[in-house]
Automatic annotation (TrEMBL):
InterPro entries, alphabetized: GSP17M-like_dom
Origin species: Lentzea aerocolonigenes (Lechevalieria aerocolonigenes)
Protein name from the UniProt record: Membrane protein
General stress protein 17M-like domain residues: 38-111
Tree of life domain: Bacteria
């Protein structure tokens, strides 16, 4: 039996740092980070300082990425919620929205100039609906969340990864940076 020869398929080899869509643009789909670690820092500010140092030293920073490791969601409590605070906040946000709508109505009004009627109507309507929505939202929680907070995503550490072809040079440059004293004004 004779075997027929098949043409071999050519598969392009791509870099994990390359984006097949456009260069210099991060991939659209979430992708795990790749590269060799060249530095690890306790804060994002320190990792950013390291990459800034690499940029000053004419290092190809397009081969570098900062990766937050051990992610945590930190919710800082900013205050206690009360009915008066909820209603005041609702009225204020409704007033801003109503004022915006009222000003838009005056732009499309057949009368020249800014008239008070649409602005005042928008403002009053906005305050009313802001109060209603805030009261319904807070009342439906039934005391299960009587505080205000601000959430932030933080990492336990920040690793600087680099394309393998430049990793050794990057490590050397960051080692020199680590030997320098930290200047708060810099």
């Amino acid at each position: 039996m004779e075997r027929s020869a098949r043409p071999t398929e050519v598969v392009p080899v791509t870099s994990p740092f390359a984006n097949p869509n456009r260069s210099g643009v991060p991939p659209r789909l979430p992708t795990p980070p790749t590269g060799w670690p060249i530095g690890s820092y306790a804060t994002y500010e320190e990792a950013q300082r390291a990459v800034d140092h690499l940029a000053v030293e004419d290092f190809p920073v397009q081969d570098v990425m900062i990766v937050g490791v051990d992610l945590m969601l930190v919710e800082r409590i900013t205050g206690k919620l009360t009915w008066s605070r909820v209603l005041m906040t609702g009225a204020a946000s409704g007033a801003w929205f109503g004022l915006f709508v009222g000003l838009l109505l005056t732009l499309f009004s057949p009368e020249p100039g800014v008239t008070v009627g649409p602005v005042l109507t928008g403002l009053i309507t906005g305050v009313f609906f802001g109060l209603v929505f805030a009261a319904v939202g807070y009342g439906s929680a039934r005391g299960k969340r009587d505080f205000q907070s601000a959430s932030q995503l933080v990492a336990g550490r920040y690793d600087v990864l680099c394309h393998p072809k430049s990793a050794e040079k990057g490590r050397d440059l960051l080692a020199k940076l680590a030997m320098r004293p930290v200047n708060p004004g810099n």
